[in-house]
Each structure stands twice: as structure tokens, then as C-alpha cells.
Amino acid sequence: MNSKERVAIALNLGIPDHVPIYSCTAEQNQIYEILGQQDLAVPLSRIQEGWTGTLFKLAAPLANRIGWFNRQTEKFLAKKIESEIAMGYDCSALSYAGFNLKGNRQATDMFGKLFDLVADPDGNVDMPMYRQGLLTTPELWEAWPHPDPDRYYETQYRLFADLQKRYGDNIYLMGSLISGLWELASQVMGLAAFSVALRRNPDFVRRMVKYYETIFLTTIRATADAGMPALLYGDDMAYKSGPQTSPRMLDEFFGPSLRRITAEAHKRGLKIVIHSCGNVYQLLDLFVDWGFDGVHALEPTAGVDLAEVKKRVGKRMCVFGNLDITHVMSQGTREEVEAAVKSALQAAAQDGGFIMAMTHSHNAVKVKNTRWMIEYTHRYGVYKT
């Protein structure tokens, strides 16, 4: 049984030959270490300091015009997949959204969020770090040059089709948009301003969410047309203490769009998995009701117990997770990783529908710990019936 077959069976709540493993790794320091190509990593100092930093700052407008930053992102996604295949992962997701540089220290995404350029522990450029939303009022949001869905489709389809053709026989690939509807709406305005808009300007919020729905439907079309079998819907809706807003409000403002998104994915023959950080106990039934086929993250550091999730929704959706990155995957010993893998298998590898995964990508995760996770999942990852 190959990786594609293994993951497809698990997503259908069946029992493959052994538990598949999902990768959410997206860090330069880990990917290039896996490939033995550390010299390809780009130090942040080269972009921000000395004469090269000065040149980079001056050249930022030109780099934006020619799409340099986004082409580098596309090349990096190929390296990401190569590293995952080399490690023995069964599935991965490919998130993509265009960025424009603001000098050599910040960038904006195409939706109106501001990010800082930051370094990983080795000093190399890490994933941009969200700082704030730039569209804090309805007027600013309306004036923002929104991405054209058809042009965005062309960009995503070209990228996804290329990667699927090159690597899709060796790993189960899922398309994705960099953020889901809740993150897009709340982060482009900032959570405080968005919370006010929910109460005082609900018609604007619905119009905003509808536009983001259109963009995500474009991602579904690009994913399906590229020949990928599934989609990851990433949308962090919860804190460690629980949902960022009431489940009722989430369902009222976002539920209709999410049901249309999952229905369109299923119409096109795709599975669709939701990733949400935080304590999502109060949202699990909504995830099922909205139509998602799987759920990922299920953070143990947010109080989420994998066995409890399996009990609540394991007969209705595939469970991904939930190895801790704050200690086990970043500082843990071989014995601790082995124990965590065994614990996850004991909690959720029952009657099918389970995929092993870390909760997040993070630059502190150690490659050796990742190798141990994969080793022990292969050794012990037999479903119980």
C-alpha cells in the first residue's frame, strides 16, 4: 500500500496497512537540514544588515513588481515536499499566498495583513510573523485592492499542478490557502476592530466573509484541477481557553460559507480537513456539521485530550494529531518521543480514521525528534479493531 492509498483510506475512516503520518513542517532550518543543504538557507542578516541589507531595502519595490519573493516561496515549497518524501511522511499540505515586501523588515500579504520578517534559531529567514491588520475600518477594507479570484486561480493552479505532477505519486498532497475565513476577517481588521464590527456592522462582516469565501472556492477549483486529492482549511479559531468568539456567532457569520466550501470540495471529489489551534472542544460538533472530513492540531498544551476527541467525533471525521511541539518534539528525549507516539496510538488508532501528526510547524522542532516520531509510528502504528 502506498502513501496515497494509506491516507485516502484513513480519511474515509477506514483501516489502512498502518497509521499514516502528516507533515506540517514549513521551516527552513529543518527542511534544509533534512536535505543536507544547509548552505541554501537564507540568513536574515543578509536581508537586513550591511551593504546587502541596504541593497535589499532599495530593491524591494522592484522585487515586488517582478514577484521575486513569491517565486522564492514556490521554489521553497518544492524543497519542503522533497524533504517530506525523504523523511517518509505520507501526506502534506501546501499553503500559498502572495506577499509584498515593505523594505527589508516587513511584508504585507495580498489580503491586508502586516508581517515582520523574523529569524529562526539558526539566524535564517523564518515564516513571516503576523503583526497587525491594516484594514481596521470598513472604508479601508473596501479601498484595499482585493485579489482577483480568476488571476489567483491561475497562480495557484500553475503551482499546484506543477508540484502534483512532480511529487504526487510519492506523497498525498493537499492544497491550501494561507488562512481561513475567520483568520482573514479578524486579522485584516485586528481582533478588537473586528469584534466591534460583528456587533455594530454585521452586514459589512457578511460581505467581507462572502468575498473570502469566493477566494477559497477558487483554491478548491485550483486544487481539484491540479489533480490533488484533498484540501487543508487552516483557520485558528480558538485560544488555549476556548473559542475566540462564541460558537453561535461563528456559525451565524461563517457557517453558511463553510458549508458551501466543504460542499464544493466534495462536489469536486476532494476531502477537506480543518486545522484549528487552541482548545476546540466546543467547536468539534460544528466542524462535523460544517462538513469537514478531518480535524488537525488538537493541542495537548491547550488541554485537548486525543482520546476525548476520538470519542466525540472519531466516527464522523478523521483525527489528526497530536504530538506536542513545545517539549516532546523540540526538547524531548528518544524515550519521550516513543512514549508520546504510543500514547497517541493508544488514544486514537482504534477502528481506523487516525493520522499521526505534530500539532504545528515550529522552528524549535528538532529533525532528530521528527525522525524518531516517524520511526516509532512505523514500528507501532497498527490500528486496533
For the structure shown, list the relevant keywords.
eight-stranded parallel beta barrel, four-stranded antiparallel β-sheet, about 375 residues, alpha/beta, TIM Barrel, 14 strands, 15 helices, about 15% strand
Layout of secondary structure:
Blueprint: H1 3-11, E1 21-23, H2 28-35, H3 44-48, H4 50-66, H5 68-87, E2 91-96, E3 99-102, E4 106-109, E5 113-116, E6 129-133, H6 138-143, H7 149-167, E7 172-177, H8 181-189, H9 191-200, H10 202-225, E8 230-234, E9 238-239, E10 242-243, H11 247-267, E11 271-276, H12 284-290, E12 294-297, H13 306-313, E13 318-323, H14 334-348, E14 354-358, H15 367-380
Parallel strand pairs: 1-2, 1-14, 2-7, 7-8, 8-11, 11-12, 12-13, 13-14
Antiparallel strand pairs: 3-4, 4-5, 5-6, 9-10
Helix pairs in contact: 2-5, 7-10, 8-9, 8-10, 10-11, 13-14, 14-15
Termini, distance in Å? Answer: 19 Å
How confident is the prediction overall: mean pLDDT? Answer: 95
Unreliable stretches (pLDDT < 50, length at least 5) are none
The geometry reads as globular
Order of H and E elements = HEHHHHEEEEEHHEHHHEEEHEHEHEHEH
What is the class in the CATH system? Answer: Alpha Beta
Question: What is the count of distinct domains?
Answer: 1
Radius of gyration: 20 Å
Looking at the overall shape, the CATH architecture is Alpha-Beta Barrel
Proportion of residues in helical segments:
40-55%
Strand content: 15-25%
Numbering strands along the chain, what is their spatial order in the largest sheet?
A: 1-2-7-8-11-12-13-14
Largest sheet, if any? 8 strands, parallel, barrel
Structural class: alpha/beta
Number of strands: 14
Q: What is the fold named in CATH at topology level?
A: TIM Barrel
